[in-house]
Design brief:
Layout: E1 2-5, E2 10-13, H1 15-21, H2 33-36, H3 41-52, E3 57-67, E4 72-85, E5 91-100, H4 102-138, E6 144-146, E7 152-155, H5 158-167
Antiparallel strand pairs: 1-2, 1-5, 3-4, 4-5, 6-7
Length: 171
């Protein structure tokens, strides 16, 4: 959580938020909000403006490219901005409750990609199986599949006729 207060939106935050700041902590304590997060300011300033105008804001899994460890990284956050009023009732700052969702978003993306890969592989395997089945069904040759105990597992369309011609019994 953090509070951004006053005209400069001075930044005060708790220990868990220090983890979000990364290398910017502890220098960020008391700095202007803009100075701490200048790299994402274009993304968040409309939200801050709305909160400072009295509107509560909520965003889920907002993508942000942040520089908090000395390099740019893609991150995602779920957070709310709520206006804070001074003793006269005037909006003088904002409160933020925030949760980084980067790991979850990346895990969900990886799971979707895995699922798409598996669906593609299954589709390809089914297409290959259908092709083989079409070849087997399209031939006049006697084709049958039996298990190790000589039980039929599959026969093609030509097999019953050929079997009856050879053995005088229709399977």
């Amino acid at each position: 959580m953090f509070v951004a207060w006053g005209d400069a939106l001075g930044f005060l935050y708790n220990d868990p938020y220090a983890e979000i700041l990364g290398a910017k902590h502890p220098h960020a304590l008391g700095l202007r909000f803009h100075d701490i997060w200048s790299e994402i300011w274009p993304d968040i300033s409309p939200l801050i403006d709305a909160a400072m105008a009295g509107q509560s804001i909520y965003r889920e899994d907002l993508p942000l490219v942040m520089n908090r460890k000395g390099y740019d990284e893609q991150t995602w956050f779920t957070f709310s901005y709520s206006p804070l009023r001074d003793e006269n009732g005037k909006i003088a700052g904002m409160f933020c409750a925030v949760s980084e969702t980067t790991q979850r978003v990346l895990a969900e993306r990886a799971l979707r990609e895995l699922n798409e890969t598996l669906e593609r592989r299954v589709s390809e395997a089914l297409a290959q199986r259908k092709l083989l089945a079409d070849i087997v069904e399209g031939t006049d040759a006697f084709v049958q599949v039996v298990d190790l105990e000589y039980r039929w597992l599959a026969i093609n369309r030509a097999a019953p006729d050929q079997f009856q011609r050879i053995f005088a019994i229709r399977p």
